[in-house]
Amino acid sequence: MSRRYLSTCKETSFVRISKDVSSLASSYEHYCSGRENCEGAGELFRVTTLDIDNKSSLPLVKTEEGKSTTDIVDSSQDFFGKPAYLTVSGQLGGETYASAMGDIYTFGPTFRAENSQTTRHLAEFHMVEPEMAFADLDSAMENAEDMLKYVVKHVLDSCEEDLAFFGKFYDKGLIKRLEKLVSQPFVRVSYRDAIKYLQEEIAKDPSKWQFPDVEFGTDLSTEHERWLAETKFDSAVFVYNYPKEIKAFYMRDNEEDDGETVNAMDLLVPGVGELVGGSQREERLETLLEKMGDQDLDPEDYWWYLDLRRFGSVPHSGYGLGFERLVTYVCGIENIREAIAFPRYPGHAEF
């Protein structure tokens, strides 16, 4: 399946870019530990060559916060001379290549230090991240829909024996569900309308819901996503135009919605919930600087990212697709840990 996905990218003139495994930035830690970032990344894994087992040897510097003083590790003495982390996304770097080369994509390992003991999360997984120059949010949704349908159609045509096995032992409606996905257009619904539908349904019996409090600004949970995809629409569905307060600084403000939302989207599918997350990127320098200020990000740490806007910016969009989550959907399996050879998750890294 990965071979078919990547060959399709090549056939459509997408250039594959090698993905960096580590990221360097002093405020990147703040950025990726915030409310929302790089299509939903969480806490980071720190990379260091310092001898953390020997605390007396660690280079420390004192920082003052109010009346208190704290000792922190002096990252300037570390291998790279600044904090380094395992990557949570190839997106920001991908934007630099898309600005020069047009349509590109990255495919490689991604690391999230989230304490999520769920059937949908891994600490290490693989992500496909296309980035398209001269593309808006509609273009990103069209590309994601076409690509997903192409891959699923290939599986239906080429893996009949495998699908019969999964349909027998895991999901009896698997083949029918996949055939439905490739045969009909994906639904598109705004975030505002999605919230309205959820509020109407939850009001019937709030006790049936784990998270019954839903309003504008709510970050949709898995139960909300699956209800929209499985019950409300019985289809793959794009939810778009999310509140900017719950999304990342690089997402383009939606000027047609009183500045309350950004051009972001999530693709929700039955049985899984979110499969794809993406956005149109903010290409306007002054607007981007203002958004960074709102999230307490230091522009000096993103000088290269800002230079993309300062010297010849173009509209561009992209998205990320978690490959193991795609495998769970196509195979009808319930736990993402069965979709990778050596799953790593909180408290478990045997191999």
UniProtKB/TrEMBL annotation:
Using the record, list the residue span of the signal peptide; answer none if the entry has no such feature.
none
Pfam families from the xrefs? tRNA-synt_2
State which Enzyme Commission number(s) the record gives. 6.1.1.22
GO MF, any single term:
ATP binding
Give the UniProt entry's GO cellular component terms: mitochondrion
Keyword Protein biosynthesis carried by entry: yes
Q: Which UniProt keywords apply?
A: Aminoacyl-tRNA synthetase, ATP-binding, Ligase, Nucleotide-binding, Protein biosynthesis
Residue intervals of the Aminoacyl-transfer RNA synthetases class-II family profile domain: 104-343
Q: Does the keyword ATP-binding apply?
A: yes
Record family assignment: Belongs to the class-II aminoacyl-tRNA synthetase family.
> What's the protein name?
asparagine--tRNA ligase
Organism, by scientific name, is: Pseudo-nitzschia multistriata
